[in-house]
Design brief:
single chain; mainly alpha; Non-ribosomal Peptide Synthetase Peptidyl Carrier Protein, Chain A; 65% helix; 5% strand
Length: 147
């Protein structure tokens, strides 16, 4: 039981996932601080120093806080934009540069006529006899050996 667990943990995908989660948690604090320090003040400058806020209370005790929802949506969009432009886009450009340095995969050589013919014979043998073949071993010519 412990060997199976060890094998599961030591697979590359699980280790990569664990590293990604730890780095993602650390990166979350960086992105949150970017949003709080730069993007939220920018939104306040654009809106004249006001925050988007507001509530709606159709009945006593039931409050719809649409302003908080709008703030969270704006923060999400700004965070997603920051991650895209500061992380995803540079990584994609780096991967493109790395791919340009690699040599292209060699094209497979053309098969000779003999190899092509043998491949066709093999494929037809695997497919089995044709549907209209109704002969039996008794119908074979006398000079042909029987299996």
């Amino acid at each position: 039981m412990l060997k199976g667990f060890r094998d599961f943990i030591m697979r590359g995908n699980v280790v990569d996932l664990a590293v990604g989660i730890v780095i993602g948690a650390a990166f979350t604090t960086v992105v949150n601080q970017l949003v709080e320090s730069f993007l939220n003040p920018f939104v306040k400058v654009v809106t004249g120093g006001r925050e988007t806020s507001g509530t709606w209370e159709p009945k006593a005790g039931i409050i719809f806080d649409w302003g908080k929802f709008i703030n969270v949506v704006i923060a999400f969009l700004l965070t997603a934009a920051a991650i895209y432009f500061f992380v995803v886009l540079p990584i994609n450009k780096l991967n493109e540069r790395r791919a340009r340095g690699r040599s292209p995969e060699p094209e497979p050589e053309q098969m000779s006529d003999e190899v092509r013919l043998l491949t066709e014979i093999r494929d037809s043998l695997r497919a089995g006899p044709p549907a209209d073949a109704t002969s039996s071993p008794a119908d074979l010519p006398p000079d042909r050996p029987r299996a």
